[in-house]
Amino acid sequence: MLYFKKTFIMKKYIGYIGAALMCLSILSCHKDDFNYPEGTVGVSTITNYPVFTRTGDNYVVVAKGSDFTDPGITAKEGNNMLKVTTTGTVNTSVAGVYTLSYSATNKDGFSATSSRTVIVTGPDATAAANDFSGTYLRASTGQVATFTKIGSGVYLVDNPGGAANVSLVAVAFNQVGDKIYLPSQISSDGLTTSSSNETSVAAGGNLTQFSWVILNTGYGTASRTFVKQ
After folding, report:
1. What is the DSSP string of 95-147?
2. Are 64 and 120 in contact (CB under 8 A)?
3. Alpha carbon 29 to its chain's center
4. What is the spatial distance between Cα 229 and Cα 208, in angstroms, rounded to a whole number?
5. What does each C-alpha distance from 98 to 33, 120, 121 come to in angstroms?
6. pLDDT the model gives residue 43
7. How far apart are the C-alpha atoms of 135 and 147, rounded to whole Å?
8. Per-residue pLDDT tens digits for 6-60
9. Are 223 and 211 spatial neighbours (Cβ–Cβ below 8 Å)?
10. Residue from 166, 66, 186 nearest 117 by CA
11. What contacts 93, CB < 8 A, 6 or more positions away?
């Protein structure tokens, strides 16, 4: 009787083990349902940050005294249009660099921003005839500043400080004679940038040498001298 009792118990446990293995097998074959409701993944909600589409260029050059109309910008959350709020103004009667900032907020309260730089220029006859485009070497660092003319008396300057491993683009003005300088502006690093103590040497409408102090919290107070290459 003892032998049969042990055999019965063993068969009972084997039956339990078999049932457990069958359950595991069934569970392992179960496929997750990824057909989540739109806008969700499992129990998490998807949020789409505002995406801006700008009409026109990032840098817009306007002649002093003329009219300026914002080319426009739109923002979407997925396929839905969002309200865009614009801050900043442009005074076309005063030469300078102006920043227009755009912001939009999605349905979940998350916001995003974009911007446009508007440059008002009014050079005298000498400055209007100049072309300071090209590269200028700062010998003390071996780095160059690259000038690209984008309007009359207006240049985009890549690396105006002639610094190593620095990415900075700013707008330079040549509004009077051969003088070159950085008007106060929000530069590509998001900081306020300008210049002081400027000197320049030009001949035949071409800039041959200049120096300036970069006024930006990421720079020191040293004068930086460049020579045309």
Report:
1. -EEEEEEEEEE-TTS-EEEEEEEEEEE---HHHHH----EEEEETTTTEEEEE
2. yes
3. 48
4. 8
5. 53, 8, 11
6. 42
7. 6
8. 444 444 444 455 555 554 455 455 555 555 555 544 445 678 889 999 999 999 9
9. yes
10. 186
11. 64, 65
Homologous superfamily of 46-121:
Immunoglobulins (2.60.40.10)
Structural contact between residues 75 and 52, judged by C-beta atoms closer than 8 angstroms = yes
pLDDT at 223 over 90: yes
Task: Tokens for 92, please give them.
Answer: 């076309």
Where exactly are the structural domains of the chain? 46-121, 125-228
Nearest to 129 by CA among 188, 228, 202, 198: 202
Q: Kindly report the pTM of this predicted structure.
A: 0.79
What phi and psi values does residue 76 have, to the nearest 5 degrees? -130, 150
Query: Residue 129: what residue type?
Result: A
Strands 96-105 and 59-63: unpaired
pLDDT at 41: 47
Beta bridge partners of 119: 61, 97
46-82 pLDDT, tens digit per residue, is 788 899 999 999 999 999 999 999 999 999 998 999 9
